[in-house]
Every structure is written in structure tokens, then in C-alpha cells.
What does this fold into?
Amino acid sequence: MMWFEPPPTAPDWSVAVRHLKKADPRLAAVIRRVGPCTLAPRGDPFVALCQSIYSQQISTAIATLLFGRFRKHFRGGKPTPAAVVRLFETTPFEQLKACGLSRQKHAYIRDLADHFVARKIPVRKLPAMSDEEVIDALTAVNGIGRWTAEMFLMFVLNRPDVLPVDDLGLREGVREIYDLPARPKAIEVTRLAEPWRPWRSIATWYLWRRGVATTT
It folds into this structure.
């Protein structure tokens, strides 16, 4: 699951929760255990995508630490596309390694910044674009695959009906609640999740959180 700083407030997903409880008794048990859904929009698109690149192949705790170091290079602690380009053009790579940037991630974030500067990612139009159009725009950036784009749809744009079938946490959740002998393949996850429409993002969130009991 993609890592972001917690939002101040969350949308009201009560309609989605009622639908999911009625549509899937197994998922209903998870919902009762976890409590209210707190899925909410998470900040600036460019910063969110930088965070997603930072999170690749490392733990959330380490990503938090390293991205915090990276943010110190920018006014107000907020990386912008133009500021990232300036930083990378004026600072030797060896000095940026302390921020946790491998050469690969350095190249990925630079390509991301270049795409934003050139307006190849139409930020203002993203809310009106279809899920697949957003995925196509984002995956044109080196280092951003379909899974990352799907996490962006869920956590930044808060699209309600995303089903990231390649996500291992989702597939393991489906295996667990349906008591399957093995982790299901993408096609089986899609079939089992059909009753969750049009709230598959919310169902996915609950399966990620299935081990967390409500405190209310």
C-alpha cells in the first residue's frame, strides 16, 4: 500500500459501506471489525508520486525517514517539479545519496519532474479523466507502473472503484476471507470482487486493514 502523511479529514463512505455489507457477508465481517473507512485524498500529486517512488523496495518507516531528508532541500519542505530539476542540476548525485536516492530512483524522480514541468501530466485535468486515462498518463513516467498509478487513483484522487488485482495484500486478503487454498490469481480476484462494484477501492482498503480492530 502506498505511504502518505495522514489527512486531516476523511470523506463519508457510509453509502459504500452499506453496499459492501449487503453485497458480501464475508467482507461485512471485516468491516465490522475494522470500523469506519478513513480513505481520503492525500495531498499534492507531484509530492505523492515522489513518495511512491521513494517507497519502492523499502519499508514504510525507512521511506518516511529518507523522504524527510529529501524534503529538507526545498523551501517549506515541499518539493516542486521545477525545484527538483534545479536541485538535480546543481547538486552532485553523491551528495543526494544521503537522502536515500539510488541512481535508479534519482533518474525516476528526475523523469517525473520533467514530465510535470513539460505538462505531460495534465494535473488540472486529472479529476475529469477516466481511471485508464490517468493510468496511461502516469505510466509514461519511468519508474511508475500500473500498481503505483492505481494507488494514486485510490489515495490521491480517491476514485471509489479501483481494483488493484496485482496487489499482494489484496490477493492475500481475498484468500483469507474466502478461505481459499492458495492466493488467487488476478482473474479470480476480479470475479470475486464483482459484487463490490462500484466501491471496489473501499473493499480493497478494508482488506488491507483486516487485521486492525476498531477502537470505537
User: Anything to note?
Assistant: The chain has a mean pLDDT of 92. The radius of gyration is 18 Å. The CA atoms of residues 196 and 203 lie 7 Å apart.
